[in-house]
Write a structure and sequence with these properties.
Strand order of the largest sheet: 5-2-1-6-7-9-10
Helix content: 25-40%
Keywords: Protein biosynthesis, Transferase
Number of helices: 8
GO molecular function: methionyl-tRNA formyltransferase activity
Organism: Corynebacterium singulare
Structural class: alpha/beta
InterPro entries: Fmt (IPR005794), Formyl_trans_C (IPR005793), Formyl_transf_N (IPR002376), Formyl_transf_N_sf (IPR036477), Formyl_transferase-like_C_sf (IPR011034), Met-tRNA-FMT_C (IPR044135), Met-tRNA-FMT_N (IPR041711)
Order of helices and strands: EHEEEHEHEEEHEEHEHEEEHEEEEEHE
Radius of gyration: 23 Å
Shape: elongated
Enzyme class: transferase
Number of strands: 20
Strand content: 15-25%
Length: 326
């Protein structure tokens, strides 16, 4: 089957690789324009564009898909020439206008990293971890004018592990989802797939802003644990120490630390920091959590125990009785 692939970030690369290796013809790729990043603010291609160019595949980089714009009209003309039978989509990041949906015979087929209708929207992986879901997965569906509301073509399930960060889970889903997308293209080509309407109550995963990643130390320990893992590595869970913002890596939450610490450690107030010889505890709305890594302003992530020793010295020098995260 002749396809055009639409995608941009690293998780989409796995799907493109699988499609290139499949029996289907990847005639072209649609991706976001080169973006500036790094200290020099130089232009860099998207991961999808880089892979496509390695394989000599035509790359289209419109800034918008809207009709009546130069980029949008050029894209429409090129798609008409390419005549794709399907356009598989993985995290493309641009609005697909309604008039384009019927261009390919089998439509635009999105790979979404949840079991729809659960966690429609921009951040399904993060939302599933933060909510404490035990299962998630991937769904291929035909894009319509709604937000992730189209008919389901196929699904794959994935268990969420107790220590999964968003990066861990997304990496596994990128691979299982890529296989699912290839099977979906196979099924559309041979007619073995019958689209099914979504059933069940929908939940939504909005786009994550930096403010959303702030830690609420008054929440229970298990909620804080999931919140931090859901925002790791990006945008990164964070807290304030005075006016300084610190990023916080995954923590250890669980039973009281009574065997390793005195009763005062188990009675820490939310956000109260206690430095011991080998670790750093922080009070929550339930039992304390043990910090794993922490990133002070202007520095790299470091072991929390090493950071804690520096903090303990500063507390002694400054005559501080307590340290509170907020």
């Amino acid at each position: 089957m002749r396809i055009v692939f639409a995608g941009t970030p690293e998780p989409a690369v796995v799907a493109l690789e699988k499609l290139i290796a499949s029996r289907h013809e990847v005639a072209a790729v649609i991706t976001r324009p080169d973006a500036r990043r790094g200290r020099g603010r130089s232009l860099h291609p998207s991961p999808v564009k880089a892979l496509a160019e390695e394989h000599g595949i035509e790359v289209l980089t419109p800034t918008t898909l809207k009709a009546g714009t130069e980029d949008g009209d050029v894209l429409r003309a090129r798609l008409a020439e390419l005549s794709p039978e399907a356009i598989p989509v993985v995290a493309y990041g641009n609005l697909i206008t309604e008039d384009l949906l019927d261009v390919p015979t089998h439509g635009w087929v999105n790979l979404h990293f949840s079991l729809l209708p659960a966690w429609r929207g921009a951040a399904p992986v993060q939302a599933s971890i933060a909510a404490g879901d035990e299962e998630t997965g991937g769904t291929t569906f035909r894009i319509d004018k709604g937000l992730d509301t189209g008919d389901i073509l196929a699904t794959v399930e994935e268990s969420i592990q107790p220590t999964d960060t968003a990066d861990d889970l997304l990496t596994r889903l990128a691979y299982s989802g890529a296989d699912l997308l290839v099977r979906t293209m196979d099924g559309l080509e041979d007619g073995s797939i019958t689209p099914q309407p979504q059933q069940g109550e929908a939940t939504y995963a909005h786009k994550i802003a930096t403010e959303d990643a702030r830690i609420d130390w008054a929440a229970p320990a298990d909620v804080i644990d999931r919140h931090i893992r859901a925002h790791t590595p990006g945008p990164g869970a964070w807290t304030l120490l005075g006016e300084s913002r610190l990023k916080v890596g995954p923590v250890t939450a669980g039973p009281q630390f009574s065997e390793e610490h005195d009763s005062a450690s188990n009675a820490l107030r939310p956000g109260e920091v206690r430095v011991a010889k080998k670790d750093v505890l922080v009070g929550t709305g339930s039992s304390p959590v043990r910090l794993g890594q922490i990133q002070p302003p202007g520095k790299k992530m470091m072991n929390a125990a090493d950071w804690g020793r520096g903090l303990s010295s500063k507390m002694t020098q400054d005559g501080m009785d307590e340290v509170i995260f907020s």
